[in-house]
Amino acid sequence: MIKIGGGWDEILKDDFSSESYLSLREFLKTEYSERVIYPNMNDIFNALKITPFKSVKAVILGQDPYHGEGQAMGLSFSVPNGIPLPPSLVNIFKELSLDLSIPPAKSGDLTKWAKEGVLLLNTALTVRAGQANSHSKKGWEVLTDSIIKKLSDYNENIVFILWGNNARSKKKLIDATRHFIIESAHPSPLSAYNGFFNSKPFSKTNAYLKSKNIKEIDWTL
Prior knowledge:
single chain, alpha/beta
C-alpha cells in the first residue's frame, strides 16, 4: 500500500483502489523491471509527500517528468541540485526575475516552493528514459485529474497556474468561483515569447493570496 501522508492517503483512498490505478500499477511494475524509468520509484509521489493536502496554496501543473538521466525528482519543472537547468526552468526563473526582481537561482531544485505550499504536480508521474509522454494515457491522468478536482472541491482559495495547452485543458476540473486560475503559454523556448514572459504569475498569485488573508509565497530559492 502507498503511504504518502499529509492527508493525501484518506483523500485518495478510492483512487488508489480503483481499477484504473491497479491496472496502472501493473503496467509500472513491468516498466520499472524491464526499462529505465524516471523518476526513481521512491520519488514518484514527492509532490504530494512534500505538500500536504490542506497546505496547498498554489498548483503549478506540468505535463510529465523530465526524461533525461538524473533530472526527474517527482516535482514538476524541478531538477536536483547540480543538474543543469532545463530550458523551461531557465525561462521560469527569467520570468520570476522580471516579475519579482528575484535573481535566477543557480540550482533548479524547487523543493523550497513545495514546502511553501506550491504543489508541483505533473499530469503523468513517470516516463521512459528519452521518451517524452511515453507514460501518458496509461492511467496517470485519471489519478491526477482526481487530485485537481479534489483540491478544487475540498479546499478554497488555491491559485491554479496553468502553463500551456495540456495544463489549460484541466481548467474544467476547477471551480473558478472558489479558486483563482492563472493561464498562459508554456515556458518552453518554443512558446515562452507567445505570452509566458510578462504574464506575472508569481506576483498575481501573491496578490490573490494576500486578498484572502493567506500568507504569501516566498518565491526566493
